[in-house]
């Protein structure tokens, strides 16, 4: 009896304390930046929402896992001022019938990262004021044409990362205010145009990784306001020159991770507003001279990780506003030809030429305003690092990525330039942490006013291997270690990532395995050979025997 009273008192405690405001023990209650009373239960491990201990004035409820197993239903009725409800990562199995009935101020419902399999119209009755619904990362299998028909004011709908196989006709019936729709990560394979007849206001549409092979042009015809289109990681092989004819307001287009082998001339002829174009990770072998002709507003162009051999000056000549270019990972590209192309776009501020091999000396001469340069993974050594000398503006830049190269040290001149750069990456270089190779840099880096995201790591001498240079005591460094054993030089030149955890061990293990294999093969051959010989003898013996007969 006494114990029961004690438990009840404990439960009532949070209700009685805290200035007549209620707040469940396992949660925090405060006001958000818009001065709204909010409840935050983010520790996880909840098995129910402690509704009786929540203040009725609450306007924002945020409940997060991990380890929650929560059911929702008509729990929220008394929170008539509720504007935002986010219950994520909590294994909610279903939304429930009329769960939000009467909450006329509710604007945002976020039930992402749960176990919801089914969505129907009864879930959202009375929600004609809702602006945003996030059901991403659930297990929704199908939708019906009436699933959302109470949500007539909805502006943003996120259904990404579910298991929706098909969009039935009029899936988005009555959502004619919808501006943002994300269907990414559903194995849809097809987007029936009719489905989009109901969302003429759509501005942002994403269907990354939807197993799409092509799009019916009719769809674009129904979405004249579209400004952002993300169709990355699908299976497009070819885009017809009329593909984007009807979407004249596009500002951002992502087509990365498809199988495109060419950008046909005139493909973007109506996209005069386009600013951002991502064609990385395709199979582009060439960019015809007129492909980007009309893209006078383009500021960002990503052509990385394709199969380009060259990029004609002619094809980028119209890109007067281009600021960012990424041509990394086009391993077959002849960079000697690129100087001429770069001369046409000297205004670039961001350039990535990573994973390309050796960079010709004068390559970067045309650029006078470069502030971000990524030349990682290019076998750069102390000598070839001079390629960055012409880029004077790098000294006030934000990023220089020199990782995954062959740098043993950083000389004084380079240190002078590096010390003004906000962020420098030098990881995965065979750096020798002694006075003559790294002394200057170590000194400078240890006294910088700001922090780099990552710091260089020593490769030699062995006792310092793996140490960040910021942890070193400069006075205890060796003078000059010009001695590198063959073993280490080999390790450095055979693998870019030799410094990553376990890299060397992996090499050693691989070597060991190869050795064992060779021995096994030799032994096996020896055994085999001796057996054959044995058999030959017996046959010969028999033959001899036969002859003798
Ligand atoms: C929710 O899904 C997760 C992951 O598939 C599973 O482990 C868990 O058992 C499910 N929870 C419920 C209540 O069904
Ligand atoms: C979803 O699919 C299941 C099984 O295929 C079916 O029983 C259910 O009626 C479908 N729901 C809707 C809303 O179409
Ligand atoms: C850039 O876009 C604007 C509309 O945003 C358009 O009026 C202008 O013609 C475009 N410029 C070029 C060079 O295409
Ligand atoms: C493309 O332009 C280059 C000059 O940049 C020119 O040499 C080449 O002949 C052109 N190619 C075609 C197919 O017009
Ligand atoms: C290409 O470089 C740009 C600018 O540095 C960067 O924003 C983009 O993510 C890079 N693309 C890839 C595929 O890494
Ligand atoms: C530089 O490019 C490489 C290869 O594309 C990439 O992995 C790396 O993240 C880039 N560096 C920065 C700072 O973005
Ligand atoms: C690096 O190259 C410069 C010439 O650019 C040379 O003077 C210097 O001795 C070299 N430093 C190292 C550590 O090899």
Automatic annotation (TrEMBL):
<protein>
    <submittedName>
        <fullName>(Mediterranean fruit fly) hypothetical protein</fullName>
    </submittedName>
</protein>
<dbReference type="InterPro" id="IPR032675">
    <property type="entry name" value="LRR_dom_sf"/>
</dbReference>
<feature type="signal peptide">
    <location>
        <begin position="1"/>
        <end position="17"/>
    </location>
</feature>
<dbReference type="GO" id="GO:0005615">
    <property type="term" value="C:extracellular space"/>
</dbReference>
<keyword id="KW-0812">Transmembrane</keyword>
<keyword id="KW-0732">Signal</keyword>
<dbReference type="InterPro" id="IPR003591">
    <property type="entry name" value="Leu-rich_rpt_typical-subtyp"/>
</dbReference>
<feature type="transmembrane region" description="Helical">
    <location>
        <begin position="507"/>
        <end position="529"/>
    </location>
</feature>
<dbReference type="InterPro" id="IPR050333">
    <property type="entry name" value="SLRP"/>
</dbReference>
<dbReference type="InterPro" id="IPR001611">
    <property type="entry name" value="Leu-rich_rpt"/>
</dbReference>
<dbReference type="Pfam" id="PF13855">
    <property type="entry name" value="LRR_8"/>
</dbReference>
<keyword id="KW-1133">Transmembrane helix</keyword>
<keyword id="KW-0433">Leucine-rich repeat</keyword>
<keyword id="KW-0677">Repeat</keyword>
<keyword id="KW-0472">Membrane</keyword>
<dbReference type="Pfam" id="PF00560">
    <property type="entry name" value="LRR_1"/>
</dbReference>
């Amino acid at each position: 009896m006494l114990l029961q009273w004690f438990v009840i008192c404990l439960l009532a405690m949070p209700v009685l304390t805290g200035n007549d405001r209620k707040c469940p023990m396992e949660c925090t209650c405060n006001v958000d930046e818009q001065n709204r009373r909010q409840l935050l239960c983010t520790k996880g491990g909840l098995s129910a929402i402690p509704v009786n201990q929540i203040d009725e004035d609450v306007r924002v409820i945020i409940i997060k896992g991990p380890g929650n197993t929560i059911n929702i239903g008509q729990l929220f009725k008394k929170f008539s001022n509720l504007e935002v409800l986010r219950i994520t990562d909590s294994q909610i199995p279903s939304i429930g019938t009329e769960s939000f009935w009467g909450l006329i101020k509710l604007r945002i419902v976020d039930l992402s990262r749960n176990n919801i399999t089914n969505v129907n119209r009864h879930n959202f009755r009375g929600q004609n004021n809702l602006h945003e619904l996030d059901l991403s990362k659930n297990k929704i299998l199908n939708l019906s044409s009436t699933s959302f028909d109470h949500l007539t004011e909805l502006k943003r709908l996120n259904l990404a990362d579910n298991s929706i196989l098909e969009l039935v006709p009029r899936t988005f019936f009555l959502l004619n205010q919808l501006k943002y729709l994300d269907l990414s990560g559903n194995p849809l394979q097809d987007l029936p145009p009719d489905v989009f007849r109901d969302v003429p206001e759509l501005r942002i549409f994403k269907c990354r990784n939807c197993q799409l092979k092509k799009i019916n042009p009719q769809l674009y015809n129904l979405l004249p306001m579209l400004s952002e289109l993300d169709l990355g990681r699908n299976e497009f092989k070819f885009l017809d020159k009329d593909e984007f004819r009807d979407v004249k307001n596009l500002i951002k287009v992502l087509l990365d991770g498809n199988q495109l082998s060419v950008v046909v001339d005139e493909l973007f002829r109506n996209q005069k507003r386009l600013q951002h174009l991502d064609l990385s990770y395709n199979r582009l072998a060439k960019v015809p001279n007129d492909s980007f002709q009309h893209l006078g507003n383009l500021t960002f162009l990503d052509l990385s990780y394709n199969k380009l051999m060259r990029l004609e000056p002619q094809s980028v000549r119209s890109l007067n506003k281009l600021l960012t270019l990424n041509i990394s990972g086009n391993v077959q590209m002849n960079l000697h030809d690129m100087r001429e192309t770069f001369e046409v776009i000297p205004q670039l501020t961001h350039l990535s030429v990573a994973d390309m091999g050796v960079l010709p000396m004068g390559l970067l001469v045309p650029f006078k305003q470069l502030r971000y340069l990524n030349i990682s993974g290019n076998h750069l050594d102390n000598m070839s690092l001079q390629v960055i000398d012409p880029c004077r503006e790098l000294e006030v830049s934000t990023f220089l990525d020199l990782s995954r190269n062959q740098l043993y040290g950083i000389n004084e001149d380079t240190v002078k330039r590096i010390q003004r750069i906000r962020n420098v990456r030098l990881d995965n270089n065979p750096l020798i942490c002694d006075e003559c190779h790294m002394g200057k840099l170590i000194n400078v880096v240890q006294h910088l006013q700001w922090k780099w995201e990552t710091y260089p790591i020593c490769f030699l001498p062995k006792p310092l291997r793996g140490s960040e240079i910021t942890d070193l005591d400069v006075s205890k460094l060796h003078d000059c270690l010009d001695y590198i054993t063959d073993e280490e030089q080999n390790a450095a030149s055979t693998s870019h990532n030799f410094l990553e955890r376990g890299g060397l061990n992996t090499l050693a293990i691989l070597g060991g395995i190869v050795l064992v294999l060779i021995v096994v093969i030799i032994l096996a051959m020896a055994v085999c050979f001796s057996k054959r010989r044995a058999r030959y003898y017996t046959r010969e013996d028999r033959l001899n025997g036969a002859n003798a007969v």
